[in-house]
Amino acid sequence: MKFILAGAAATALLAASALAATAPAAPAKPAGPAPKPWTATLPDWTGVWMQSDGTNFDPSVPRGQGGVGPRQQPPFNEQYKKLYNDRLDSAAAGKPLAEPGCLLSGTPRIMRSPYPMEFAVTPKQVWITHEYKGEVRRIYTDGRKHPAGDDLEKTYHGHSIGHWEGDTLVVETVGLRGDTTIDSTSMPHSDALVVRERIRRVDAETMQDQITLDDPKALVRPWTVTRTYKLKPDWTIKEFICAENDRNPIGADGATGVTLK
Fold it and tell me: Does 251 or 10 have the greater pLDDT score?
């Protein structure tokens, strides 16, 4: 009887040893002291911000009357200059470019939206959340590169990477669709557009974004504008459901309408 029990005990011990050998190892605990709070090393951009330059992409151009906006002067090549002028002339004749209201504005147009935005700054990403249609820009600051070749998908907001130079966020965005517009004057760009930005908090109440458009298919040289945003301490970002309030339906004649509810 003693031999039987000893044999059973030995078998159980061997089974337990085999199970322990095949079980996944416990994750290694991080060594060293707790990391310092990252908030001490990154700027504080909390709060809700509202652009103060109007909806023209170039704030140096005087604000126009009505919804079409004034003619701006990007350094277009002849092909894109004609395309832009044709769109402006068509809009002046009562037939602006049809832009279904529930499609995203995309980058860089969203940065001159007449709706507020807020920032979330973390060590590896910066998010810019816009009230307008709930659009979100994600800027990766973890050292990654842009996707290469076919891995770079063309999207409304493209692929953004950035790094910090002191308290300035330096951003580069590529992979943008070529069928969006730069502002409400239907200013065109191509799918080769690269957007470079330098975003910084100038003072307690002011944010600034220096935006450079580099588009070898549309522009004869890079074009830089600087936009300004003001802190709105008492504001919050509201929910925006475009499908419940499409303010720009396309009519039977193909023209974009305006409906305020």
Answer: 251
| Higher per-residue confidence, 14 vs 226 | 226
Q: How many angstroms separate the Cα of 69 from the Cα of each of 10, 116, 127, 219, 234? A: 87, 20, 29, 21, 30
CA 138 remoteness from chain centre: 5
Question: In a 10 Å sphere around its CB, with 0-12 CB exposed, 13-18 middle and 19+ buried, how is residue 185 labelled?
Answer: buried
Q: 171 with 56: CB under 8 angstroms?
A: no
- For 84-100, write each residue's pLDDT tens digit: 999 888 888 887 776 76
pLDDT at position 70 over 70: no
Structure tokens at 241: 């459901």
Residue 253's Cβ-count burial label (10 Å; 0-12, 13-18, 19+) is exposed
Establish whether the linkage from the previous residue to 108 is cis, with ω within 30° of 0.
yes
CB 188 within 8 A of CB 195: no
Question: Which domains does the chain carry?
Answer: 40-244 (2.40.128.20)
